[in-house]
Design a protein that fits this description.
Elements: H1 4-19, E1 48-49, H2 56-64, H3 69-80, H4 84-100, H5 103-111, H6 116-131, H7 136-142, H8 144-153, H9 159-170, H10 175-188, H11 193-203, H12 211-224, H13 234-244, H14 253-268, H15 278-290, H16 294-304, E2 307-308, H17 310-313, H18 320-336, H19 340-344
Parallel strand pairs: 1-2
Helix pairs in contact: 1-18, 2-3, 3-4, 4-6, 6-7, 6-8, 6-9, 8-9, 9-10, 9-11, 11-12, 11-13, 12-13, 13-14, 13-15, 14-15, 15-16, 16-18
Length: 358
């Protein structure tokens, strides 16, 4: 398989040229192939990148003002109600905020050094900072005690074990260690999406597994998941890892399209513009773009609404929002033009004569 970055980058360049040729939000007119109704889609100025939900936003505003109480209350609620998925998401976002604004977290830890919620954010922050360091492996090894402290804070919480799985990937942990950590994670929450994503990354060809191993894990997990669970999008994540990893032809295109189909089914179960599945929908849009499934991609952009996410667009360039908007524009143009490439496709997944993966 040819590296898909080349293909997606070509689409972005085409979208930039298209901006100077046509106004894509113009009403559709017969015989005018580049027009497309904008109904159901948001203008670029309405799109937000990694927008927090209504519960997280006040905690981030409070942290920006130097207060930790709102964040402490939010995470305590997720722990008391066993809202593990929300707890994981909020921990990630709060730690990301603390990278550049750590004072509120330092005050929280000073006031409550054994608070399991503060310890969880501290462990996640340490992981984030270590991953960004040139001495990543060494720094990751040094923070193992922080993860253990977070795990001891609430023995029922699976989120420290998701952090431990990320830690294992960065420290070159063996498959035996990985299996032990995975067992601890699923014993606490057998359908925790974040833990499944962390495990999938470890098993990917970019790290310590293979494309087939990654797909096998994702498909088994999706099959065993509950209706509406984000785990049903795990095969689409395996497809993404395959696409960006230059997977050759080790995975049949039918398997990739089946992963996309399962993701579409999951996405359709949620209301358009729902922030909960936003990252999954952005991921799915990327996969569908690479597969040149233009009408389905456009529908996914419609469902995304204003909720663009850094993943996966950050893999293309340092401006994920710009990449999102330009590809959305390109897809709208392709659909309006009658999807000429779609008609040319002999079979999904075959390489075109120009060498790009179709």
């Amino acid at each position: 398989m040819v590296h898909t970055m080349t293909f997606v980058s070509a689409l972005i360049r085409t979208a930039r040229r298209a901006r100077h040729v046509t106004k894509l939000s113009a009403p559709f007119e017969p015989g005018r192939p580049h027009g497309l109704p904008a109904a159901g889609l948001f203008d670029g100025q309405d799109v937000l990148l990694d927008a927090p939900d209504a519960r997280l936003a006040p905690a981030l505003v409070s942290a920006a003002l130097g207060g930790y109480e709102a964040a402490a209350k939010l995470l305590a609620t997720t722990r008391e109600l066993a809202e593990w998925e929300n707890r994981d998401r909020y921990t990630v976002r709060l730690a990301a905020f603390a990278v550049n604004r750590p004072e509120w977290l330092a005050d929280w830890l000073a006031a409550a050094p054994r608070d399991p919620d503060a310890l969880l954010v501290k462990a996640e922050l340490a992981i984030v900072e270590a991953w960004g360091s040139p001495a990543r492996a060494e720094r990751l090894r040094d923070i193992a005690p922080l993860i253990l402290s977070a795990a001891d804070g609430d023995p029922a919480d699976p989120v420290p074990w998701r952090i431990a799985l990320d830690h294992a990937r960065g420290t070159h942990a063996s498959h035996t260690v990985f299996e032990e950590l995975w067992g601890e994670a699923i014993r606490r929450s057998s359908h925790h999406y974040g833990c499944h994503v962390a495990a999938l990354q470890y098993l990917s060809a970019q790290w310590y597994g293979s494309h087939r191993e990654c797909f096998d894990f994702a498909e088994r997990a999706a099959e065993d998941s509950l209706p509406g669970s984000l785990i049903r999008a795990l095969p689409a994540r395996a497809a993404f890892a395959y696409m960006v990893g230059g997977g050759g032809h080790s995975v049949p295109y039918e398997r990739i399209d089946a992963a996309a189909d399962l993701g579409i089914e999951l996405s359709a179960a949620y209301e358009p513009g729902d922030p909960w599945p936003a990252e999954v929908r952005n991921l799915l849009a990327y996969v569908l773009v690479v597969r040149r499934r233009w009408p389905e991609t456009l529908e996914e952009f419609r469902r995304i609404g204003p909720y663009a996410t850094s993943f996966p667009w950050l893999h293309l360039a340092a401006d994920p929002l710009g990449q999102f908007l330009e590809l959305r524009e390109f897809v709208r143009c392709e659909v309006a033009a009658g999807m000429p490439w779609g008609r040319e496709r002999q079979k999904p997944g075959r390489a075109r004569s120009d060498g790009h993966y179709a």
